[in-house]
Design a protein that fits this description.
metal-binding, D(-)-tartrate dehydratase activity, binds magnesium ion, Enolase_C-like, Enolase-like, domain 1, three-stranded antiparallel sheet, alpha/beta, 37% helix, eight-stranded mixed sheet, 389 residues, Enolase-like_N, binds oxaloacetate ion, L-alanine-DL-glutamate epimerase-like enolase superfamily enzyme
Length: 389
């Protein structure tokens, strides 16, 4: 098996929504296709990668550093010597040659996107769904989970969607089969945010839960003030209250806020996560970790994060990746995460899972098709093929 061509591009996911810190009016994602000489059922096998929302596309890093290294490497260095199939862990090592430690940021996203395409390719070459390949390589339990708990993330600030629009949006998620939901806070004064929270809680059935996400907006005094107000509501979690790298701030909040805190979507490496684990005072039985593989160097880096966390008593069930990305669902089943995020409405066609596996009672089954499952989301597959031939 040989890589014949790697194509990349940028796709828009612009929309009029805003969280507490950014609007998404110019948001883009990197997209990558890895073409090969392997033919299955008369079609050359192609692996696809794309990253989650929140980081802009990294065309410069991909075109000048990451992709040239892979294109110029001796082809056998990219293969598993036992099977002759692409080895994404070997590809990632090649992609990272001559990169110093630290300074993760956008480089981690570029590599995470390529990593996803390589895993899609490896699973297609072996003719297995990606979650099964990942379980075989990294899983600990005897079998991968057949379905994964997901929650509907939305509830953004929208200029034309005051509280009744928010309620309609949340009703729509419940109708789609979601049980639990997340909305934004921190983009309005506390009193208005509390009205938004109460308006949603008011329509949720008794077994549904609500999480809130401040996107790292608050300084510590504001985060504590919100925490005191939120304590009244038995929320599913209080997400990114302060800057993602303010570990001491998290430690102070974790002493004060009785419910679950959630963070990690803006950490980009195992080293960042180790610092979080060491210094942020988070509680292994309570708090939720949301690192996103497509934003943080991909699957092998995530495995390192999980191994570090396990030594400190963190179960993978406390992990629930950000991003609504198909690879997160595959990883959640393979590694035994507590769940993963889904975007049923926003960031389309990138957010959400295969069209063939609708959500039932808050869970999504894993698809049976070989690879990641991009082909089971025709709007996404068409977009990728049109941009990346
Ligand atoms: O608004 C965003 O950037 C996305 C986000 O935080 C989330 O899905 O948790
Ligand atoms: Mg978030």
């Amino acid at each position: 098996m040989r890589i014949t061509r790697i194509t990349y591009g940028e796709a828009p996911i612009a929309s009029r929504i805003a969280n507490a810190v950014i609007d998404f009016s110019r948001m883009t994602v990197s997209i990558v296709a890895v073409h090969t000489d392997l033919v299955v059922d008369g079609e050359p096998v192609v692996g696809y990668g794309f990253h989650s929302n929140g980081r802009y596309a990294q065309s410069g890093i991909l075109s000048t550093r990451v992709l040239p290294r892979v294109r110029e490497a001796a082809p056998d260095r990219l293969l598993d010597p036992d099977t002759g199939v692409i080895d994404p862990v070997a590809v990632r090592a090649v992609a990272m040659e001559n990169e110093k430690p630290g300074g993760h940021g956008d480089r981690a996203v570029a590599v995470g996107t390529l990593d996803m395409a390589m895993w899609d390719l490896a699973a297609k070459a072996e003719g297995v769904p990606l979650y099964r390949l990942l379980h075989r390589r990294f899983g600990t339990g005897p079998e991968p989970d057949p379905s994964v708990w997901v929650y509907a993330a939305g509830g953004y600030y929208h200029p034309e969607k005051p509280i009744e629009g928010l309620r309609d949006e949340i009703r729509g998620y419940l109708d789609l089969g979601y049980r639990d939901v997340k909305i934004k806070i921190g983009g309005a004064p506390l009193a208005e945010d509390l009205r938004r929270i109460e308006a949603v809680l008011d329509l949720l059935p008794p077994d549904s839960r609500l999480a809130v996400d401040a996107n790292g907006r608050f300084d510590l005094p504001t985060a504590l003030e919100y925490g005191r107000a939120l304590g009244a509501y038995d929320l599913m979690w209080y997400e990114e209250p302060v800057d993602p790298l303010d570990y001491l701030g998290h430690a102070v909040l974790a002493e004060e806020y009785p419910g679950a805190l959630a963070t990690g979507e803006n950490l980009f490496s195992a080293a960042d996560v180790r610092n979080l684990r060491r210094h942020a005072g988070l509680r292994p039985g309570t708090d939720i970790l949301q690192m996103d593989p497509s934003l943080s160097y991909g699957v092998a880096e995530y495995d390192s994060m999980l191994r570090d966390l396990a030594q400190a008593g963190w179960s993978p069930r406390q992990v629930c990746p950000h991003g609504g990305n198909q690879i997160n669902l595959a990883m959640a089943a393979a590694f035994g995460f507590g769940g993963c995020e889904s975007y049923p409405e926003v960031f389309q066609p990138f957010g959400g899972f295969a069209d063939t596996t609708p959500v039932r009672d808050g869970r999504v089954p894993l698809p049976d098709a070989p690879g990641l499952g991009v082909e089971l989301k025709p709007a996404l597959h068409t977009l990728l093929r049109e941009h990346l031939h």
